[in-house]
Amino acid sequence: xxxxxxxxxxxxxxxxxxxxxxxxxxxxxxxxxxxxxxxxxxxxxxxxxxxxxxxxxxxxxxxxxxxxxxxxxxxxxxxxxxxxxxxxxxxxxxxxxxxxxxxxxxxxxxxxxxxxxxxxxxxxxxxxxxxxxxxxxxxxxxxxxxxxxxxxxxxxxxxxxxxxxxxxxxxxxxxxxxxxxxxxxxxxxxxxxxxxxxxxxxxxxxxxxxxxxxxxxxxx
Length: 220
What we know:
This protein has helices at 2-33, 38-47, 51-62, 66-78, 81-88, 96-103, 108-113, 123-146, 151-157, 162-177, 182-195, 201-207, 210-217. The chain has 13 helices and no strands. It is mainly alpha-helical and 220 residues long.
């Protein structure tokens, strides 16, 4: 039966959802404080469903980078899903429409949990794991957006450190798994830090990606 096959995926999704709930609440609160209407924050979680891209957008917006810089930062964050979805393609089922819908279920935690030793992807883990996480992410965002705490309370609870801490975790994970990228990351950090003297935070985030993009165009 399908529930027997999906049991592991549901368990994985429940664990990931529990960890993501607090992050979703924080995103909703900070999105509203950055100037987004609560409905827009909730819609972003429902449609984008990408914590890193959503955080990048709001961080850029609150730093004065504007909508364009925020969308650019979010797009750069989500480019990683192109190879991830391609790796999952053989495991997806049905025609083009159904496979396109199933490809939307490729998110970081589910994708990692669904990996087999031979490099293939276990669909019956990927799909249920994401289906559990999505409503929790959207619901957590709604709670944070509709009941956003004041800036003073946010500071007291240390929630204002969630954004930089989130990106720090992503950075440490990349450094651990792909040490060859360290020179590019260091160059990007140097460019971003230098840019902060002359441009808003959101624009500096985009400029920090230039070293990696330039080296990528050279095939390095």
